[in-house]
Specification:
It is a single chain. By secondary structure, this protein is α/β, with parallel strands linked by helices. It has one domain: Metallo-beta-lactamase, Chain A, CATH 3.60.15.10. The radius of gyration is 17 Å and the shape is globular. The chain contains seven helices and 14 strands.
């Protein structure tokens, strides 16, 4: 099975009509992985697969626009008749289970263990599901955050997650078929923390990849402007991730 990416949502920092926040369905080598669980993406996930078929969930960081629909998954798996045959591995920053338990007023996370199997991420974390290999790199953000490199039978997808400028992005994108990269901000104000990328920065970090797919475009930019600006630096094919589209490579 070739590597494919289905876009579930791209909005930042909140969902919009017809446009959920960050989320993607990654398929390859017999595995199906829900990558980031922004609000609205669990509903979109069901357009493309049965959630009980998920091999794993991978969460870049715990900001709500990338993780809050895990709560929807808990309700579906625990109460909605979509119970997976075994607990689904959730690769996420270490505090993920505790935060989810807090929504239920539970001080102990063990009540989630029958449906989700939480496995903390760290820099250079690597795991294989069937013929799909997932490698995690720590990136620069204002919370514990990671980028992803997915490899399957010679095809490579790289994903920035939410990140400011950092060397890990160059390493993730190197020799990737597609670099899925955020371009959240129009420009960086003086003294502002470097926790997101401009389109030009996204284009620069993508130079080792064959194709750049822009996502997570913030409210100060349009997707069209972000693509055009990234293209002036990247020099190769640049497009915007759009909800419902699937890219196979």
């Amino acid at each position: 099975m070739p590597l494919s990416l289905t876009v579930l949502g791209t909005a930042s920092p909140h969902p919009q009509p017809g446009r959920p926040c960050s989320g993607y369905l990654l398929r390859g080598g017999g595995a199906e992985v829900w990558v980031d669980a922004g609000p609205g993406t669990f509903a979109e996930l069901q357009r493309h697969t049965d959630p009980t078929r998920l091999t794993a969930v991978w969460i870049s960081h715990l900001h709500a626009d990338h993780s809050s629909d895990l709560l929807s998954a808990v309700y579906a798996f625990a109460f909605g008749g979509l119970t997976p045959p075994v607990p689904v591995p959730v690769y996420a920053p270490k505090d993920c289970a505790r935060r989810l338990a807090g929504f239920f007023g539970q001080p102990d996370t063990r009540f989630l263990s029958g449906i989700l199997d939480f496995r903390p991420l760290h820099d250079n974390h690597a795991v294989r599901h069937w013929n799909l290999r997932l490698t995690t790199r720590a990136v620069a953000h204002d919370a514990e955050a990671y980028g992803l490199r997915a490899e399957c039978q010679g095809s490579v997808l790289a994903y920035s997650g939410d990140s400011g400028p950092c060397d890990a992005l160059t390493e993730l994108a190197s020799r990737a078929d597609v670099f899925l990269c955020e371009a959240d901000i129009d420009r960086r104000r003086e003294g502002e923390r470097r926790v997101h990328l401009t389109p030009e920065e996204a284009g620069g970090y993508a130079k080792g990849a064959r194709e750049l797919l822009i996502t997570h475009v913030g409210p100060t930019l349009s997707r069209e402007a972000a693509v055009a600006r990234a293209a002036t630096v990247f020099g190769g094919r640049v497009s915007a991730a759009r909800e419902g589209e699937t890219k196979t490579f």
